[in-house]
Amino acid sequence: MSAITGLYAFRTIDQGSITGKVSPADAAQAVWAVSGTDSITANVVNGAFSLAVKAGTYKVVVDAKEPYKDASVDNVTVADGSPVDVGEIKLQK
Fold first, then answer.
1. Residue-by-residue DSSP string for 56-76
2. Which of 11, 13, 16, 91 could covalently link to 68 via disulfide, CB atoms 3.0 to 4.6 Å apart?
3. What are the CA-CA distances from residue 27 to residues 30, 51, 60, 88 (Å)?
4. pLDDT value at position 12?
5. Handedness of CA 19, 33, 86, 88 (dihedral sign)
6. Angle CA(73)–CA(77)–CA(83) in degrees, nearest 5?
7. Separation CA 29–CA 68 (nearest Å)
8. Domains along the chain?
């Protein structure tokens, strides 16, 4: 029995991901995913971003370059091992 218990102790948690695009493509450098006190950031490359995250609910924040305004998407829910595409986030001036 203890061998089975040991196997479960080492079960890996499959990370999920949050992906999307920023428009215009050169209007942002970074994107943040925030859940409670946890946060992760990724660079925006050619308008696209991808964040590897644990299961949970996140607020995705785009850190825009001037003259554009920051933008966010609330309540992005990620399940274990599942990718979530938030689509295109259009930045406003």
1. EEEEEEEEEPTTSPPEEEEEE
2. 91
3. 10, 18, 16, 13
4. 54
5. negative
6. 100
7. 12
8. 14-85 (2.60.40.1120)
Residue 87 — left, alpha, or beta (φ > 0 → left; ψ -120 to 50 → alpha)? left
Mean pLDDT of 20-28: 97
| Spatial CB neighbours of 59, under 8 Å, sequence gap ≥ 6 | 33, 34, 35, 72, 73, 74, 75, 76
Q: Which tokens is 56 given?
A: 């949970």
Decide if 24 contacts 59 (C-beta within 8 A): no
Residue 34's Cβ-side half-sphere holds a number of Cα atoms within 13 Å equal to 12
- Please name the residues in contact with 51: beta carbons below 8 A apart, sequence gap of 6 or more: 17, 18, 19, 31, 33, 40, 41, 42, 60
Rounded to an integer, the average pLDDT of 32-55 is 95
Place of tokens 């785009």: 62
CB atoms within 10 A of CB 64: 21
